[in-house]
């Protein structure tokens, strides 16, 4: 059986979210030793060094043109290739148009439906119309939480059996509670000018992450707490509509209290989790929320929203707060940071919760769906 995969989201150096998901899926497929399975990964660009190495069972096909690649170059290749896959899998929302190959797609969440004002017009149009077409064409739809499944079924009016929930995982090689020397962590923190206790946020800088309310909650904590020394560290690359975030920092005169690190690699990110007073993800909407599990695996107390998939992922292993109320966010941060009994409970429960997620299981279940849909 030949399985075709759109691998473009993994072909990036600084992977987050969907990019990390696709990368782990490709790694899992690459590790399969069955002689009955062959994998062909389609790319716009030459594969970067960190992608799995091609071999007799796992190959790359690089072709263009790059503009409208999914809707033009890819379907042409699938139609006229002599190595036609038995099944095609796109880990994104977009299936190639007019392709004769049975296809499976992934949808992480429907934030573009419920929060359209938080997206750029071009991206919103593409998400709405291309996803709608792909949902109709797909034999199965993979998603990453029961919450997202319910949203997909309700909005697109598809049968429940068409949508399959397969939980993703984290990179346990980095995200764990193994000892790292304080000297190494201190050196890393000093490089970012972090000199005090800190609260941590991890995620792309975009409106859906609710960073402005987090900043407002942090400001309230500073004003009401006897401890004025702690900082807020925001880890993540710039996404879109992020200028309001920096404007809020200036407005509240917090330039010396809030540190933006930009994107950091997993090894450094794990050190942030290990040293933070707590991790806060007050998102308005998440399909899963991988940083919640990363923080738990590192023994970092978690504060997160009581909406979308986050209660499903966190269960009783985090403090759940109303993301629209800055007072609630501030109170959650205070409890997770300074109430020792609460901290100990969250850490213990979080460590156990993080163990249930597994990339091998995710890849195995994904492969089973693809086999069932193949011709």
UniProtKB/TrEMBL annotation:
<feature type="domain" description="Glycosyl transferase family 1">
    <location>
        <begin position="195"/>
        <end position="350"/>
    </location>
</feature>
<dbReference type="InterPro" id="IPR001296">
    <property type="entry name" value="Glyco_trans_1"/>
</dbReference>
<dbReference type="Pfam" id="PF00534">
    <property type="entry name" value="Glycos_transf_1"/>
</dbReference>
<keyword id="KW-0808">Transferase</keyword>
<dbReference type="GO" id="GO:0016757">
    <property type="term" value="F:glycosyltransferase activity"/>
</dbReference>
<dbReference type="GO" id="GO:0009103">
    <property type="term" value="P:lipopolysaccharide biosynthetic process"/>
</dbReference>
<protein>
    <recommendedName>
        <fullName>Glycosyl transferase family 1 domain-containing protein</fullName>
    </recommendedName>
</protein>
